[in-house]
């Protein structure tokens, strides 16, 4: 056996030869040389006392220790939950399908569309097998596709119930866009179909997976604001008849309602998730211009107040004829929060108000769409409940109906059990 000097005693070039001779390039991690090298050859890859300097490294290409793992490494494709996207419209193509690239537990497995050319082009773009492209007539054959675990319904609101129920009958789990459905009765049927099938139903409330809203919820519900006394939330935009995605939104039979159903639901959700309570009373007003052809069937502007059991009050609004607005404030006895914008797809901002001044809070942006899909994927794999199940969607539809009732009848409405 050849005698080797400890590397610390070798001249520089000798050290590099020593490392090569010891087959360092082939060593698996962690690379532990401290026992032969003294302090200059302390452990790499964690632990150990010494410091590895560049002079200790071999001067040719070598493998290196595995970097410290991310908090949650992505699952390999074969272990991910497969999603079928139903309805390839503005939101599905612009936000949801691209977000699979950022997900860690979900993958795009199938497409359902009434426009075959668009569906095939999308399938090619995202690597979906042509055999996994369906239309609304062949949709039920998805039952025979083992690559699909979840059906994600991104259709006009009136179609959510039908495709959710058909997906459950095909044995799949369901992610359903907001609002869950047009009527309370439809929501109940969807929940019942899921229960019968033994499958999960999640309403896609993305704000619950949006980091700024999550941080605001943590602070408001964790007592950092003191007692939450007042929540305000406004959501508005211009309804645009030239935008194909807005055309069905002018048709009450497809949309279920106007600005309230479409974006007011974010204001309603904000009041509920910031207080962590359910309202006991609602007072609402509504205004819809009579001479604007966009509003022949659906309402324009709605404002409503809600009272919560703790004494917290909420002041909310939605409008289809104001500049883009998405904001939430939660004001407590000690401090307040402002989210503005609050519910953008990205770039939301959170401010803390205390002693009359505001501090901008740094929150790391992260895809809320990937977050919500991965949440359902994890719930399926680990058989856990989802954070926004059908009951959450039903409650919003129920409350929105009461907001309309209060505005129509010009009186407060008590949120009684069983309504
Ligand atoms: P779009 O009109 O852009 O897309 C709807 C798609 O549904 C159409 O492209 C079409 O897809 C399919 N469709 C089937 N039947 C009809 C019909 N009778 N009329 C119109 N479309 C039909 O709408 P959005 O993408 O904006 O909205 C879809 C859903 O997503 C809604 O429930 C909406 O509330 C929700 N949404 C949620 C958002 C969120 O942030 N969570 C944001 C935006 C929307 P195809 O051609 O492939 O058949």
Describe this structure in words.
By secondary structure, this protein is of the alpha/beta class. The chain folds into 3 domains: 1-65, no CATH class; 77-206, 3-Layer(aba) Sandwich (Rossmann fold); 208-366 and 389-414, Dihydrodipicolinate Reductase, domain 2 (2-Layer Sandwich), CATH 3.30.360. It contains 12 helices and 15 strands. It has helices at 12-21, 34-37, 90-99, 116-126, 160-169, 184-197, 211-221, 244-247, 252-255, 259-275, 368-381, 390-409; strands spanning 81-86, 106-112, 133-134, 150-153, 173-176, 201-203, 228-238, 281-287, 301-307, 313-319, 321-332, 336-339, 350-354, 357-361, 413-414. A 9-stranded mixed beta sheet has the order 14-13-12-11-7-10-9-8-15. Helix 10 (259-275) crosses helix 12. It starts with 11 loop residues before the first helix and ends in a 5-residue tail after the last strand. The model is unreliable at 1-49 (pLDDT under 50). It binds NADPH dihydro-nicotinamide-adenine-dinucleotide phosphate (NDP). NADPH dihydro-nicotinamide-adenine-dinucleotide phosphate binds next to helix 3 and helix 8.
């Amino acid at each position: 056996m050849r005698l080797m000097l400890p590397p610390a005693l070798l001249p520089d070039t000798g050290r590099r030869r020593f490392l090569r001779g010891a087959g360092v390039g082939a060593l698996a991690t962690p690379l532990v040389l401290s026992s032969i090298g003294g302090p200059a050859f302390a452990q790499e890859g964690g632990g150990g006392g010494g410091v590895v300097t560049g002079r200790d490294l071999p001067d040719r290409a070598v493998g290196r220790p595995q970097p410290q793992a991310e908090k949650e490494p992505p699952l390999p494709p074969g272990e991910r939950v497969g999603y079928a996207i139903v309805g390839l419209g503005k939101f599905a193509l612009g936000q949801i399908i691209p977000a699979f690239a950022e997900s860690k537990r979900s993958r795009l497995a199938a497409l359902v569309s009434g426009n075959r050319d668009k569906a095939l082009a999308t399938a090619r773009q995202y690597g979906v097998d042509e055999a996994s492209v369906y239309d609304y007539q062949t949709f039920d054959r998805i039952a025979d596709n083992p690559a699909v675990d979840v059906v994600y319904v991104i259709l006009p609101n009136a179609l959510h119930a039908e495709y959710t129920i058909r997906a459950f009958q095909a044995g799949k789990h369901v992610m359903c866009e907001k609002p869950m459905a047009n009527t309370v009765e439809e929501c109940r049927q969807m929940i019942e179909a899921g229960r019968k099938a033994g499958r999960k139903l999640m309403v896609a409330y993305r704000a619950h997976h949006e980091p700024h809203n999550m941080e605001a919820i943590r602070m408001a519900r964790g007592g950092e604001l003191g007692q939450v006394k007042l929540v305000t939330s406004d959501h508005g935009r211009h309804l645009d008849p030239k935008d194909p995605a807005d055309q069905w939104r002018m048709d009450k039979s497809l949309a279920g309602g106007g600005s309230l159903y479409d974006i007011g639901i974010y204001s309603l959700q904000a009041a509920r998730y910031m207080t962590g309570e359910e309202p006991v009373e609602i007072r609402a007003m509504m205004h819809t211009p009579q001479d604007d052809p966009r509003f022949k069937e659906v309402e324009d502007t709605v404002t409503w107040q809600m009272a919560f059991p703790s004494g917290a009050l909420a002041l909310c609004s939605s409008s289809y004829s104001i500049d883009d607005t998405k904001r939430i404030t939660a004001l407590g006895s000690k401090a307040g929060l402002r989210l503005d914008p609050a519910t953008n797809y990205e770039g939301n901002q959170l401010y803390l108000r205390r002693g009359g001044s505001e501090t901008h809070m740094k929150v790391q942006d992260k895809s809320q769409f990937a977050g919500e899909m991965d949440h359902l994927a994890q719930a399926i794999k680990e058989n856990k409940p989802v954070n926004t199940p059908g009951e959450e969607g039903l409650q919003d539809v129920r409350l929105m109906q009461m907001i309309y009732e209060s505005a129509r009848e010009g009186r407060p409405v008590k949120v009684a059990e069983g309504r």
